[in-house]
Design goal:
The complex is a heterodimer. By secondary structure, chain A is mainly alpha-helical. Helices cover 75% and strands 3% of the residues of chain A. Chain A is built from 14 helices and two strands. Chain A has a two-stranded antiparallel sheet. By secondary structure, chain B is of the alpha/beta class. In chain B, the strands form two sheets. In chain B, strands 1, 2, 3, 4, 7, 8 and 9 form a seven-stranded mixed beta sheet that branches. A three-stranded mixed beta sheet of chain B has the order 5-6-10. Chain B has two domains: 210 residues, D-Maltodextrin-Binding Protein, domain 2; 205 residues, D-Maltodextrin-Binding Protein, domain 2, CATH 3.40.190. In chain B, helix 15 packs across helix 16. Classes of the chains: A mainly alpha, B alpha/beta. At the A-B interface, strand 1 and helix 13 of A face helix 1, helix 5, helix 6, helix 13 and helix 18 of B.
Chain lengths: 308, 443
Amino acid sequence: MTSAARRRPYGVKGAPYGFLIPATILFALFFALPIGYAVYLSFRKVHVSGLGLGSGARKEVWAGVENYTDALTDSELTHGALRVLGYGCIVVPVMLGLALLFALMLDSERVRLAPFTRLAIFLPYAVPGVVAALMWGFLYLPDVSPFYYVLEKLHLPQPDLLDGGPLYLAMSNIAVWGGTGFNMIVIYTSLRSIPAEVYEAARLDGATPLQTALRIKIPMVAPSLVLTFFFSIIATLQVFNEPTTLKPLTNSLPLTWSPLMTVYQDAFRKGDIYQAAAEAVIIAVVTLVMSFGFLRAANRRQKQEATR
Amino acid sequence: MPNAQRRRLVVRSAASALAVALGASALAACGSSGGDSKAESGPVSLTYWTWTPGMDKVVDLWNKGPGKKDQITVTVKKQASGDSLVTKILTAHKAKKAPDLVQAEYQALPTLVSNDALADIAKETGDAKGRFAAGVWQQTTLGTDAVYAIPQDIGPMMFYYRADLFKKYGLKVPTTWDEFAQVARQLKKKAPDKDLTTFSANDSGLFAGLAQQAGAKWWTTSGDKWKVAIDDAATQKVAKFWGDLVKEGAVDNQPMYTPAWNKALNTGKQIAWVSAVWAPGTLTTAAPDTKGKWAMAPLPQWSTGQDVTGSWGGSSTAVTTDSAHKEAAAKFAAWLNTDGSALQALAKESGIYPAATNAQTSGAFATPPAYFANQPDFYTKAAEIAKTTAPSAWGPNVNVAYTTFNDAFGAAAKNKSDFVAALNTMQEATVADLKKQGFGVSR
């Protein structure tokens, strides 16, 4: 071994870099380059002269930070961000709360049909977001929904779920329905990896199942809670499928309901990819800051608790 | 005819500006690529982006017939319709890889031309002009000497109503918009849970067509400046008319093309629809149970004795500047939209209403659509209505105006608020976009 290393010193030294090359090339080609191009585009714009007809009337020029100032002063983008914030405030706590609850219930000793229940809760995650939104959209439309039929027969009030405040609940419901199962599996898996001795010790100390859940299980799955929270924040900031699918069903959803919808509208409806690139960069930065900010805060707390 | 002349006056100044620009580009083209279209020999294969259903079967006729003789093979690539295809064409054109032939709605032509994506095929297709109504042909020339596309189908607007229910409630088919409003109110009085129709904010083409009927000209040019008149008196009249109807609850305010809308048509909750010649196809799928109960009439007019309609939809076949075989592509485009057998197949396989005037009364249109079997003269009437289509005036950022319409009128319809304010939003957003892009804009 040592003699071989002595004979080919360069080969050994260079080996780590050799192993890095494929990943680096892939990263550069499919990650850094497109992002770099998007950033480049966000500083460009089209300039048309006169009527803009005929060839040569359209030129791509530097825009400076014009696209960014336009995006940041665009009330639709900020309104969209606020709407998504409100939506996230409903989705994330409810979804993670339910996921944790279901995981704990599945993990308790008295549960029956555990594999079936687990699959049943997880199944909605396998339904594509667009299909889920369409399905719920049909259920929300008073004229075609079986729910409204029942409500009408029972002479109960029939709320308009595709308008105003209830719209947020209706949209959150789709996300919660689709996302709970996935998060539950993540938490459940980490629950299963808690060693049995810990439970045994708890039982010997006279802990009730509820106390075991609150004092032992939840603190021990905290890292996976952090992880699911992290994923949920990103998913919420990027919400696009559900509002886009529901949009044609109601007048209450503007085409710019969420920030990503604004990006889509600017790029593909208005054909202004430069403006869309600037908005995409802003959203990426906000997502990065928010999600990693949360991760750092969570890590700091965990470290503090560990040292305590 | 007189309509077309009026339109030509409006765009004459645009024409001169264009002619200069085109002349310059033609000169440039001569130097670099003059040879490629002349030296056409050997087999040519063309790609065609279209959303028309059944187009592959129509193209098969070409590939087996005239195409085989000329060694020009066309391949159809099915696409999504409307605005998303425009974006796709422009993106492909950026990479100089747009297909040889594309389908484009009339209102998208100025956008495509201003991006230099469409080739002038005047030389190859000049004699096709006589086959189309002047107002239709003018949309493909943008009022210049150039020809950017061959008209394929048109969508003259009409009024569709449930003949049986109109009789049941003792309603008279409206011939003016005043009567239309009265009928809507009468129906509300007799059957409060029913609506004459709905004002839908999810298809801008409908509103644009109604404004066109009222005489609106949204984009015009003077010198080298565009003038945007989306908030002109005619359009304000249309917006106020529908806004008032929605506000007093005389018509519904929910969007079209939803499951709820289908059900409303199918169960007779909505008993009329302001639509275009292609409505039978939509009604067949949306309201299958009411087949044979509908009837078609001309669109209500703004004043008695008038005879004008707008258009909603309709598209053309264009050759792109990226095509290496423009002459062959233009030949196919002309065949597709003027040849008798091609038009017959388009009507049969794709269910389109042809732009070519003689095809509108040809064999395929001798009998009414199955859905309107009760109205034997459906297509005779349709051809007459098509002749009364008002001229249209499209500009280079129709997409922006349309997108703003969706949101502004969607919110106004929902809140039953001022439609004219929504119209002003549309005007401002459209002007702001033109200015931002650097177009010359005059107020």
